[in-house]
Amino acid sequence: MNNASKTIFESIELVKNRPRLFLPRIFSSLISSTWFVSFLAGYITLSQFTVFLPFMLFLSIFVTLIIASMVRDEKKGLYQGVRESLNNWKKTFYITLIIMFSTLVALTMPLIGVSFYIIYNSVLVLIFSLLVTLVFLIIFVFSSYFLPVAILENDAVRDIFSDSFRTSESNPREVSLLTMFSFVLLAVAVTSTGYLETLGYIGFVLGRVMSSIVTTYVLVVSPKYYLEN
What we know:
- With 229 residues, the chain is an all-alpha fold.
- The protein has one domain.
- The chain has ten helices and no strands.
- Helix 5 packs antiparallel against helix 6 and helix 6 packs across helix 8.
- It is globular, with a radius of gyration of 19 Å.
- The two termini are 15 Å apart.
């Protein structure tokens, strides 16, 4: 059994024996669900929805830190995990800004390519922009897969992404396997959530909770593999 397979099965045992690992993601999922449902119901405007978007991203990263902290030290409970994550709020804030900027860049390149294709019928620019985006996404995935535990392990923000990337680069085959495994699980969770959403707002919230349970397991796999390698 290779390290990736070992991590997958050991992570199952970990979340089964420590159900408190599910609480942070369920909590953040309920908050984001309330935020999104409020927008759909017209309780908040589009501008208010947009203003809260960075906070939701920050909350999502913050929750991953709590889980990573609890996985890194199995003696730590939820309170200790929250406390350690709060001590790293500045790094989390900077990482949030970097991810937002990176997402903007990733979305801009295809738009430029499509615009050149529509206006100038330039297939070359379109292909180039898509290739650049693909390379960027691969680098971003390798640089961010171990991001939560890398934030806890490194003091300087500049070292966080490089540390995550080095770990991924040293084990590209296994990290690719874990990434694909994570995407498959998340795809199943999203599909199930979409089905539950047909039941209305209650189904939407239930779907989000179920999705958060799957996401918690995915978030456990990353620090588990990082710490064992």
